[in-house]
Amino acid sequence: MTKSEHIRNLLTEQPDLTETEVAEILGRQGITFHKSLVGIVRMSMRHAPVAPLDPAECVRRVRKLAADVGGMKRLSDLVEVIAG
Fold first, then answer.
1. How many distinct structural domains can be found in the chain?
2. Domain containing residue 11
3. Do 9 and 32 fall into the same domain?
4. Whether residues 61 and 36 fall in one domain
5. Taking the CB of residue 71, how many other CB atoms lie within 10 A of it?
């Protein structure tokens, strides 16, 4: 695993860590690097392309969200409120 992958994994788990905190945490694991690498990795994570979801997966997620908010009608009402 590369240093950048270690940084990316840690930032995924704890996105609010500072560059210094990331360097300290990974340094304790024997992974040393200049803390500016954290900023570079963080920027690349923000601009990473998002893979399109499989349509079937979208449907599953919408159905789960509907169940979480109390049904499809309630989800529809919430979407209308958000859309304005």
1. 2
2. 3-46
3. yes
4. no
5. 11
Same domain? For 42 and 67 the reply is no
| Whether residue 13 is found in the same domain as residue 39 | yes
* Cα 20 to Cα 37: distance, rounded to the nearest angstrom: 11
Q: Which amino acid is at 82?
A: I
Per DSSP, 37 falls in state: H
pLDDT of residue 17: 95
Q: How many CB atoms lie within 10 A of CB 50?
A: 5
In this structure, what token pair is assigned to residue 79?
Answer: 């979407």
Q: Determine the Cα–Cα distance for residues 67 and 74; give it in Å rounded to an integer.
A: 9
| pLDDT tens per residue, range 21-68 | 999 999 999 999 998 999 999 998 888 676 777 889 889 999 999 999
